[in-house]
Amino acid sequence: MLKYLFGQRSSYLNVETINKVQSLCRSIENQIDENKLHEEFLELFHRLLNSPKEKSPRTILQEQFHFSLNKGLSQTHSQGIFLDYGRIKAAGQLVAIYPGTIYHRHFDPLLLASIRNTFLLARKDNLIIDGRDQGLSSSIYRSCHARYPIYDITWLSKDIYQHKNPLTLGHYINHFPANGLPNVTYYEFDFNFNESQQDLYGFVPNVRYADLDNEKGMPSAVLISLRPIEQGEELFSCYYNVIQQEKQS
User: How confident is the model over 187-200, as pLDDT tens digits?
Assistant: First the structure.
């Protein structure tokens, strides 16, 4: 994955630091079991769908994954994402989802939406996710959602307690500071549910700008832990992390 940045590279991001971070990310990415990820999403989404209305999505997340996320004052920006409950016990665990409109790099008109937009995340398959939740990006997502209303739109709310899916905060995770290293990494993931599970797409916070023939499921990106993360820690990724390599057999 590669998150687009505007402006000059921070002075502390020398080749040695970037290589160290990318090596760390690769070591974790190559161990990810996508079948396990799929099963975790199946369980969470089924519980979100079938739980009593008085039980909040955050409570359901805490029961299943033993952590929850919240916004707060960041070390590096006006706001970031923190672990506000529980802990993430190990590297390789699901932490968040990166929401937004899915664009095909060579087919869809992204130019206007990309202006001064630091929420663009590139996948290796020429797809770009626009995770900005305001301005033109928000309007485009709402317009696409009107055509494909099966997917989640509640992630656009500034009030995270209104989110149907409590993991849809990946777009507010900041780049790691000079005095630290990232504790999460981006990982490409496609949501694919069978015919009897179509209701589960209601918790997927992505929508395509336009459908091409024979496209199935919904491409997305998730954030995976690079180490154990304790309650109160801010989550940091690496915006300069290059696209993940193919897994070693």
Answer: 999 999 999 999 99
